[in-house]
């Protein structure tokens, strides 16, 4: 009886580990869409659904060169967005380093762009962003560091990118946005991925997902 139970356990464990291996090696060929702050994935089945689905709305900010940057600058491009501030001593350093990794990876890929929005615009002027970008070898043709009206930046972060986790819990409009998320947006302005931007290993996942989005075009 004991031998029989052990045999059953061995078979069960063997099946479990095989299924886990299959799950981790399975390649996904389509990304979900996101339209809520809890980032619940949504799989769309028709063009009509897609037309009505959440998109990043119109915006207008100023980049580190003093040039106007709007959502039309990103139409037809896959891009990664994040929120930061230049004097941040903690997660923003890791975020910027990992965004720089993406800049290097896609330096010659004209389909990919990057945008970082300051959440401290009263300090992060165009001049400050320019100096910050120069010190960190930010290529303004690939990667926009943008500033603007605080209310508009925060509204975009909270309602469009769902980038303020604390606000989702407190609804405190006076709270400071401090998020580690990197957000992947497709060529039509839909959110297609969210990643822990402080983790270098997440860059590999973004790379894989970008390749999937390219195949959609």
From TrEMBL:
| Assigned keywords, A-Z | Copper, Disulfide bond, Metal-binding
One GO molecular function term of this record is: metal ion binding
Question: Gene3D superfamilies annotated for this entry?
Answer: Glutaredoxin
Q: Disulfide bonds, which pairs? A: 88-92
InterPro entries reported for this sequence: SCO1/SenC, Thioredoxin-like_sf
List of residues binding Cu cation: 88, 92, 178
The cross-references to PANTHER family, in alphabetical order and at most eight, read: ELECTRON TRANSPORT PROTIN SCO1/SENC FAMILY MEMBER (PTHR12151), LINALOOL DEHYDRATASE_ISOMERASE DOMAIN-CONTAINING PROTEIN (PTHR12151:SF25)
Query: Which family is this sequence assigned to?
Result: Belongs to the SCO1/2 family.
Q: What is this protein called?
A: Electron transporter
